[in-house]
């Protein structure tokens, strides 16, 4: 049951993450990546902190402080800078598809670091899902915005940050609690982004914000940060980093729908084909036989 709840939480988190890509794509025309990240994770931290205190969750111990802060800067500062900057060059749908390289990165890095047992079924699932992403990206080159490849590469670099965070944070989350660890890490990343935004004058355009911009920024903070990353941490506590990571391939679905509705971005056959491959890959990677699941879970718990 814990494994299933972890996968479901990861899928819901990724679905919300896809809508956040659409909201970010909407904001990048009026605000730079630093300021967008400041709003997203600053608001997210302010929402998570009272919840963590009310619940009395266990905070990371002193020996984990440095690691929690370092991972917070990696995931909640460097990741959003790359993530937001990528959407200056590419569409919401393409950005989400590029982010879907996360499972492959998690699989390779996790295996290399000995953080996760590698199975044939899991590997096949990740390859199928990632192949679907590649087909969708490559077949859409003729209709892509000029310079979209820059956005794709920036989003893949963001995915690398996410993969490293997922692998390195898992043992730390187990020693504290998902929400407390996420809150502390988000505080570190948000403080870094706010300082950089202040020093670079990134908040200046906020004076001209209308209701739509404030609504998008608030949505990113409440749903794109607080809820999304709480569910991500909850999932990492209950299942393997690769199973959590492969759920991010749900991103293109919600990102494509939001992009089409909010930004009039086209929905094409290649995106649909990529989505089908993504779902097939998720099913294969997360429906391992009971015996293999037990062995993999046992191996993962020893890390």
Helix content: over 70%
- Using the alpha-carbon principal axes, give the shape: globular
Distance between the termini: 21 Å
Question: What value does the Rg take, in angstroms?
Answer: 18 Å
What key attributes describe this structure?
mainly alpha; disordered C terminus; 0% strand; 303 residues
Brief digest:
The protein is an all-alpha fold.
Task: Provide an overview of this structure.
Belongs to the EamA transporter family. It comes from Bradyrhizobium betae. The chain contains 13 helices and no strands. With 303 residues, the chain is an all-alpha fold. The protein has one domain (2-301). The radius of gyration is 18 Å and the shape is globular. Residues 290-303 have low confidence and may be disordered.
Topology:
Layout: H1 2-27, H2 33-55, H3 62-89, H4 92-99, H5 102-112, H6 120-139, H7 148-175, H8 178-200, H9 211-238, H10 241-246, H11 251-263, H12 269-286, H13 290-301
GO cellular component, one term: membrane
Subcellular location: Membrane
Organism: Bradyrhizobium betae
